[in-house]
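@channel sequence for tomorrow's demo:
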Amino acid sequence: MVIFVGVLFFSVQTNTYASAVGDQLTAPEAGWKRFDDTHAGVKYTGNWYTKTDTSYYNGSVKVTTKAADNNYVSFSFYGTKLRLIADLYSDRHSNNTITIDGVTESFSEYRAGSTSLTNALVYEKTGLPLAFHTVSVTVGHNRTNFIMDAIDIDDTGYLINTNLSAPVDLSAAAAIEEINLSWTKVTAATSYNVKRSTTEGGPYETIASSVTNATYIDINVTSDVKYYYVVTAVNTAGESISSNEASAILLGQPGNAILTVYLTNGSEKEYDLSMSEVNAFIAWYENKQAGTGKASYAIDKHDNNKGPFTSRKDYVIFDKILTFSVDEYSAK
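structure tokens (generated this afternoon):
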């Protein structure tokens, strides 16, 4: 007797297809995030009107007809990649241009035939450095209409609200088991996003959002790791560009030291402090030397000549400091 043994092979395929220019893309693909044409960060110059239809993303598009000079769209974003979503049709301009950080390329919204293709991917740019990018889209002239429907960028990026100022004077001060951040309040902001990296210049991870005060305490930190921070302002119209970067290293070492500050007028100031306080002073000094932070620093005098007061602090001015010395000792 002959026995036939059959082996059944299963073929499993993974769909790695990514949309290409000219495809319909009704929703952002994985790794992308979509912003509507009505976003406050998108600015329209020239003659534009709104057209509504359920086939458009979020039900509307911006249109300019028989474009003249100076009809353009501008916006800025933080990320590494960009897509433009529009409506392809036979009356659309094919000689449009887009300029990203001063580099100009052309793209088309033209489609032959009598049917349009809504939610179409008309332009894509990837491989940009992770940074803030300025974009200007100039409308072409060789046909009738130009459509603006949506913008796709990195799912970790964002469009910038150019009407919202960035926080300034961000400073980071290390203490025992925490790093204290502070910055100047932005008048039009309703909240702030705090972002952190272990690499100077980022990329940054958002560690806190909807922060309503101009201060934040980061307790999820590790000793001997230098952390870099930026803060953005937020309101209903979007998010600002980032603040200056500030950095600090978590303090964990015990002990005390005599901090002697030598001033430009020839005088000296001497303080008996914990190493945590000394390192907080050094962090402020180095940040200010790099161009960030406040001009003055408050040093707690503790029990030094306290007198009848509940506390006493000396405020030292950065540009009045000639140099300083630290003499560590072990408290017994």
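heads up for whoever presents: The first helix runs from residue 275 to 289.
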